[in-house]
Amino acid sequence: MARVALEDLTKRYAGGNLAVDRLNLDIADGEFVCLVGPSGCGKTTALRMIAGLEDISSGRVRIGGKVVNLLPPRDRDIALVFQSYALYPHMSVYDNMAFGLQLRKTPKAQIEKAVREAARILDLERFLDRKPGQLSGGQRQRVALGRAIVREPAAFLMDEPLSNLDAKLRVQTRAEIARLHQRLEATMIYVTHDQVEAMTMADRIAVINEGVLQQVGTPKDLYEQPANRFVAGFIGSPAMNFVEAEVTQDGGGSRLLAEGLEVVLADAQAARLRDRGLRSVTVGVRPEHLHPGALEGPGLRLSASIDVVEFLGNDELIHAASGGRDVVAIVDADVRLAVGDRVVLSAAPRHVYLFDPDRDMSLTVR
Amino acid sequence: MAVAEAITQPAVARTRRLASRLRPSHLALNVVLGLVAVFWLVPTVSLLAISLRDPSTYGVTGWWTVFTAPTQLTLKNYEQLFSTGLATGGVLDSVVTTALITVPATVLVTVISSLAAYSLVFGRWRGRTAVFLLVVGLLVVPVQVALIPVAQLYDAFGHLTGFNPFGTLPGVVIFHVAFGLPFGIFLMRNFYTGIPKDLLEAGRIDGAGEWTLFRRVVLPLGLPAAASLAIFQFIWVWNDLLVGLVFLGGNAHHTLTIYLYSFTRTLANNYWVIATGGIISIIVPLIIFFAFQRYFVRGVLAGAVK
């Protein structure tokens, strides 16, 4: 097990296209870090550079303190679980898992022990003699995990390992990987575009967009204190609502106004906006923080008419029109709301996020 | 549940297939196909029948009479052909000569094509596509055009090194290998492009070098293509007359085709020699075909990715 450090890691393709731009990330020994971002954001490229499958344009990758930039994949002591699983179709499950150890000239008895142990952990004992073609998607996925486990690598790299599984199996395997991480106490770097996977499994999440690292933090940090509008919109499901609003000063306080929206700011927040001299800001509020009914004092109030009500069981997902915008809210299913109703939705001051409209950086005072 | 399904499925499929074969439209189709197959086999069967009849009956009764009067069957022709043993110029000598040309030519083409295709598909060097297109371009060069230039080349090589490959078995083998490679590389390269790159990357991470990747991952997966190539190449070289005739000029040992060809000229009425020799020349490729047939496993890549 080892620490993995990325220092100004950059990938520039021959055409000048910058896939990864000066990525800095320090991953502690035994830590589970998710690289998350929309497709094409460079997260897989970054992972492939760590693995040694992609040349590094500039910057450094350190594994266990040692710079590995020029080492071939086999000498980096890492294991990679592919999105496609990439199992050797002509080998049995046993040989698929044993292949890496055989190439490293591990004694037969030791290989046998490692493979049996991995098969036991992953519940694959019955399938050791089968070929990958005779297995279901979930079983193949577990073989791919097993192939990584038996090697006892310094770090596990995973490239969207769950994206080919159906929804139910994905949730099961998610838990399985989390358990595996606890059990092996291994360093894991996990790439996904699904923020739910990242939130549920990671110790820390690194959000990447267009090759640039946006924010690194615990799932709770990212959810509660997004550094910019991109992170705010990417983390959390359904996504945060955004409204452009004008800053107005009246009497002692500041208010933010837009069609159908009013935000009364707390003093500290108002002072921050005054200091910046901003005339307009982007207001963000999460669907789960909007509640029907007016609220006195500081906070956000939004008047809207309901377009769609989606019943989820415990909750209802509301799509409402407010000043020509679609606003999403999750409300208690006990609150009887019907299509066409006009409602006021409110949020507490601590659930209101403010962003600089030009640079999209967070202006929220905590 | 899934296991039970997997077990019963083939049985169900079998019954269904049988039922569909017996449907009137399919029945008609099968009858037509059967007739075509019989029609196709007539020349070969006639050749076999002639080779198994006494030479004196040739031109007296038709070969098809063996079906009504099997007593005329005899191994006399074969005994007579084989009676010369391994003497130079005999039929067995020409079989050995042909094998000495065909086996190396086939092995070399299959091995070199597999390696070249690996580099063209999975290698990381510039100009791979250009080289491949050049190879494809070579496919259109007719053998006949190259006969004289290659002979001159051999001659020049002889002056330079003291070994002129013209008229020797290696000379013929080299010629066949050179002309087999473009198609071989073309075939193997197109097959290898279907192997997911992820598999090789997985291998690299597992610790495999290029040679191990080729031997343990790519080659086993490319076996169906390599087997097809080996069969094609074997049959082409085995049946070749022109190259052997030109490049073995002056050599006492002949290929089987040259042996048969010489009989068509001098003993046009001794049709039994051609028939018997023809059957001998058919048998070897047939054995090769059935030996390699088991490598034509469909769907070898199933379960690799997704």
How would you sum up this structure, described in words?
The complex is a heterodimer of chains A (366) and B (306). Chain A has helices spanning 43-51, 93-103, 108-121, 137-150, 167-184, 195-201, 219-224, 229-234, 267-276; strands spanning 4-12, 18-27, 32-36, 58-63, 66-67, 78-81, 155-159, 187-192, 204-209, 212-217, 241-250, 253-258, 261-264, 280-285, 291-292, 299-311, 315-322, 325-332, 342-347, 352-355. By secondary structure, chain A is α+β, with helices and mostly antiparallel strands. In chain A, β7, α5 (167-184) and β8 (187-192) form a beta-alpha-beta unit. In chain A, α2 crosses α3 (108-121) and α3 (108-121) crosses α4 (137-150). Chain A is elongated and about 80 Å long. Chain A starts with a strand and ends in an 11-residue tail after the last strand. Chain B has 12 helices and no strands. The longest helix of chain B is centred in the middle third of the chain and has 32 residues, at 91-122. The two termini of chain B are 22 Å apart. Chains A and B meet through β6, α2 and α4 of A and α8 and α9 of B.
